[in-house]
Amino acid sequence: MYLTDVKGIKVGHANNQATGLTVIIPPKGTVCAVDVRGGGPGTRETDLLDPKNMVQGVDAIMLTGGSAYGLNAAAGVMKYLEEKNRGVDVGLGIVPIVSGAVIFDLAYKDYKTRPDAEMGYEAAKNASEKENRLGNVGVGLGATVGKILGMESAMKGGLGSYTIKVGQVTISALSVVNSFGDIFEDGKKIAGAINKKTKEFYNPKEILKLMEENKEKYFKGTNTTLSVLATNVKLNKTQAEKVANVAHNGYAMSIFPVHTQYDGDTVFVLSTGQVEADPTLVQALGSICVKNAIISGVKNAKTEEGYLAMEDL
């Protein structure tokens, strides 16, 4: 189950040794909206997606590591799209609309190694309807979770996906899990702040005590979980924005604490408009897709750089 289950959606990845990015290229005419939450967002071209603004969709969405530095990679995505004559016609030529958001993974391996325009071009060029890799790939390479006690007790996060089909309706989510909080499935913690020696999770009382005693140590990092929710259901920008609003329930069902001042949690919604259906269906099932895509992100992650993955527990 992958975002490319929605007909016409293409996904591409690029990595270097320390970080990566993922580019989603939808079909022309796809409507796009966004909902940004949390106190530490890093975004590009998201104001444009407000329903009251002119442009109805995007030519690509970029999810990237490297914190704000990673936004530079969008120049490469734009270059690729311009070569393919994809963008808004402004009379003198075209301007590709590339919206994006970042995760903070600078503490993962190498602070000085970040996604750049060359990687952005590569990811866009690699975009395919057949892409289905998860875990330590693209923007998921440097993702970690459970950083409420700092990087010393964090676990490996990654890229996850989940799809629901009901009749002709397809709804799919792609999420990179890089959260301050822990990850839960059906109320049970499956990844998060852990004692690496005993491979046991810290309990809430221990976490609160350590947080209070070590404020300076534990609150330096920044995090963020990013999701792209795509559907073939026809939505206008206002309806798509409402779907993005409700999709954040998927974060609340799988991450705790969530939407903190140390996260920049963001959900993009893409509507390819191939099927007529009630937007409420997309709202409800979309939040489930996002929840399970987040869980998929930690289930598909692999141990790397000393960060344990869920599969090792």
UniProtKB/TrEMBL annotation:
<comment type="similarity">
    <text>Belongs to the peptidase S58 family.</text>
</comment>
<dbReference type="InterPro" id="IPR005321">
    <property type="entry name" value="Peptidase_S58_DmpA"/>
</dbReference>
<protein>
    <submittedName>
        <fullName>L-aminopeptidase/D-esterase-like protein</fullName>
    </submittedName>
</protein>
<dbReference type="InterPro" id="IPR016117">
    <property type="entry name" value="ArgJ-like_dom_sf"/>
</dbReference>
<dbReference type="Pfam" id="PF03576">
    <property type="entry name" value="Peptidase_S58"/>
</dbReference>
